[in-house]
Design goal:
- Pfam families: HxlR.
- This is Transcriptional regulator.
- It comes from Kribbella antibiotica.
- GO terms for molecular function: DNA binding.
- By secondary structure, this protein is mainly alpha-helical.
- It has a single domain, classed as Arc Repressor Mutant, subunit A (Orthogonal Bundle), CATH 1.10.10.
- Helices cover 59% and strands 8% of the residues.
- The protein has six helices and two strands, in the order ααααββαα.
- A two-stranded antiparallel ribbon has the order 1-2.
Amino acid sequence: MAAMDLFGRRWALRVLWELRAGPLGARALLARCEGMSSSVLYQRLRELMASGIIAPSADGYELTPLGAALSPALRSFHEWANTWAQAQEADALKEPLTQSGGG
């Protein structure tokens, strides 16, 4: 599976982001990824394990050395996402408020 295909799957990057600080169990991952179903979580975990990016640990799941090497890219993406969100918010504030008028 190509990296872009893997990382483009819903919740894959979020799972990696949550594992960046250390191992987490499935329940903790589900709690941190509000709205993700357990079936999707386990599918992503299987895919990330098969790709050598995460591994099971005594505490749940953790990044492998290969997965940990993604940390700089994840931080850069997180910083960009924050900048983008701020720009989106600023643009929304610039838009004039429209009133729906009836005839």
